[in-house]
């Protein structure tokens, strides 16, 4: 995603007739709006993944009992958490620094892969050793066959996260969409085969198979085409200065956010059991699509800001204005259709999860403001402020979840998310002119 040119491979595609009309009418606007263009590609990737993912979970909940779905999602959540920790936030570091790395891009990417894979593998091994203490419901992961696959899957998912940042940084956001399409389609195909053969671990096998295929496809494109083209186009690039310091501090904030996202399903599993965790987890998967839309626009903001730091305030306000209305519409639709949407997965899902899905959807609105504030702070290298916001989110979400889950069940978990997001967003809204001044004014 670049500030001034379309992603390679996109602008060169032949245009359909209706695209020709759009280009004639809105051509200049499309050409000079890389923030929105690249953000839209990433958002489209999330929406496509969500649509195929919804179909995937319809199949999974039809073929497997809620207890199996809940345990499987807890494993996936653990892999996501450990891979997120293990990748050392190098995905976001690559988004920030690859645009200026030039001929050093391949070396930066391979070093990031090595560090992320090694750290994720070590964390997965430590997690397996501590499972009886921290997640007894996942004790089956310590088996002689399952354990090594869990470690390998965690390492692979860490690389999957890092490659997204690399693709974004080398201006191939269209391939983020492509790799996610491969992942989603292969996942459905493997699940279908596993269910047909009555394999009880079909959900986990489908994720592992899809991960392996998407890693092969995306890295072929990345290492054979995208990185060489980026290095040829930016021969004057250099290794980013103070990269380790930036990465270490930014990593601290990422740890807090990942903890908030991925520890909650483990709390639900150990407190309420596998079936309740299935109801909560499916609601989170659906609502998280709204979070991803905001996150992806923030990634585009970071790339644009890396090329033109003077536009940070303008870019931040544009993300708010452009994302707010469609996000609000999406929240309203999701709140209204929640029971009918969940009924697709089974009557028990609609009965048990409608309330929590509505609360999680509503929490996406204040999350937009929080996410923009974090990305603006990161773009300005005010990392202490970015880390503080993410630490506060983690503390509020986990603290409120523990407090509300016993009296209110999974609905209390949804309320915890909404309360936490609103608690942070309200002061950000009040102080908006200070941390995101209008372009005509200077930051204080």
UniProtKB/TrEMBL annotation:
Keyword Ribosomal protein: no
Keywords of this entry: Cell membrane, Membrane, Transmembrane, Transmembrane helix
Ranges annotated as spanning the membrane: 41-60, 72-91, 112-135, 141-160, 181-199, 205-223, 243-264, 284-306, 327-350, 356-376, 383-405, 417-436
Membrane topology, from the record: Multi-pass membrane protein
Protein's cellular compartments: Cell membrane
Keyword Transport on entry: no
InterPro entries: Poly_Biosynth_Transport
Predominant cellular place of this UniProt entry's protein: membrane
Protein name: Polysaccharide biosynthesis protein C-terminal domain-containing protein
């Amino acid at each position: 995603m670049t500030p001034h040119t379309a992603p390679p491979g996109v602008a060169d595609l032949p245009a359909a007739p209706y695209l020709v009309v759009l280009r004639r009418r809105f051509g200049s606007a499309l050409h000079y709006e890389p923030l929105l263009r690249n953000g839209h590609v990433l958002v489209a990737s999330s929406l496509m993944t969500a649509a195929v993912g919804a179909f995937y979970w319809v199949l999974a909940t039809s073929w497997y009992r809620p207890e199996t779905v809940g345990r499987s999602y807890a494993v996936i959540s653990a892999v996501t958490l450990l891979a997120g920790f293990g990748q050392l936030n190098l995905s976001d570091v690559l988004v920030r620094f690859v645009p200026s790395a030039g001929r050093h891009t391949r070396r930066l990417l391979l070093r990031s892969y090595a560090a992320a894979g090694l750290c994720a593998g070590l964390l997965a091994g430590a997690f397996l050793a501590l499972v009886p203490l921290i997640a007894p419901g996942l004790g089956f992961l310590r088996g002689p066959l399952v354990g090594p696959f869990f470690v390998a899957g965690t390492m692979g998912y860490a690389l999957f996260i890092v490659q997204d940042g690399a693709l974004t940084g080398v201006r191939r956001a269209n391939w983020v969409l492509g790799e996610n399409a491969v992942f989603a389609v292969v996942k459905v195909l493997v699940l279908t085969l596993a269910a047909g053969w009555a394999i009880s671990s079909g959900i986990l096998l489908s994720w592992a198979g899809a991960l392996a295929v998407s890693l092969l496809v995306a890295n072929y494109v990345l290492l054979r085409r995208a990185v060489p083209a980026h290095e040829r186009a930016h021969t004057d690039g250099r290794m980013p200065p103070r990269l380790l310091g930036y990465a270490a501090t930014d990593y601290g904030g990422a740890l807090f956010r990942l903890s908030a996202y991925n520890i909650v399903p483990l709390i639900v599993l150990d407190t309420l059991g596998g079936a309740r965790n299935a109801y909560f987890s499916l609601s989170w998967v659906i609502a998280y699509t709204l979070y991803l839309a905001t996150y992806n626009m923030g990634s585009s903001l970071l790339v644009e800001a890396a090329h033109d730091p003077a536009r940070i305030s303008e870019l931040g306000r544009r993300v708010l204005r452009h994302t707010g209305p469609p996000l609000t519409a999406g929240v309203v639709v999701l709140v209204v259709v929640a029971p009918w949407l969940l009924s697709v997965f089974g009557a028990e899902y609609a009965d048990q999860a409608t309330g929590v899905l509505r609360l999680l959807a509503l929490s996406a609105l204040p999350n937009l403001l929080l996410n923009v504030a974090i990305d603006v702070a990161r773009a300005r290298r005010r990392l202490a402020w970015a880390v503080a916001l993410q630490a506060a989110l983690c503390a509020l979400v986990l603290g409120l979840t523990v407090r509300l889950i016993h009296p209110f069940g999974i609905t209390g978990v949804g309320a915890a998310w909404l309360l936490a997001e609103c608690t942070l967003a309200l002061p950000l809204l009040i102080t908006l002119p200070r941390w995101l001044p209008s372009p005509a004014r200077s930051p204080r």
